[in-house]
Amino acid sequence: MTFKGKIKPRSKWVKPSALVGALILLGFAVTSGKDGYFVPAVILAVAPFLEKEYIVDDEGVDIKFRLWGREYRNLWPWQDVTSLHVDHRKVYPDVMLHIGKDVVTRSFVFDSDEIGEIVELAREKNPSIYIENG
After folding, report:
1. Which residues make Cβ contacts (< 8 Å) with residue 2, sequence separation at least 6?
2. Which pTM was predicted?
3. What is the CATH architecture of 51-133?
4. CA distances from 12 to 6, 15, 40, 99, 105 (A)
5. Whole-angstrom Cα distance, residue 89 to residue 112?
6. pLDDT tens track for 30-54
7. CB 97 within 8 A of CB 84
8. Where are the domains of the chain?
9. Could you tell me which of 87, 88, 77, 74 has the C-alpha nearest to residue 129?
């Protein structure tokens, strides 16, 4: 079973603002002769087109990034996940799930009715996982 986390949609002003900022940086780089501004200008121009998706499924915990038709994945297999912490208060009425791997934590937001199934999936895939239901 696949569960997709909720992501706050971007405001409508983000893309135009980032592109204007990138043009300003690019203009500054050209007029001042400082090449160090080219890289931030390119990153600022590309960033608004990056889409990401949070997924928890049978494979593990995944963040999928899409940029202009190409997809990149950052997968944590279940055997690498060491802990789950369920936070019911932070994003009420939804639930925030903190997923730990060693000392690194990812936080995903899910519907409150999905969280029980996600915890059961985690227990099934990795019986040694520490689960705190706060």
Report:
1. 55, 56, 57
2. 0.74
3. Roll (2.30)
4. 18, 7, 22, 30, 30
5. 11
6. 888 888 888 999 899 888 888 999 9
7. yes
8. 51-133
9. 77
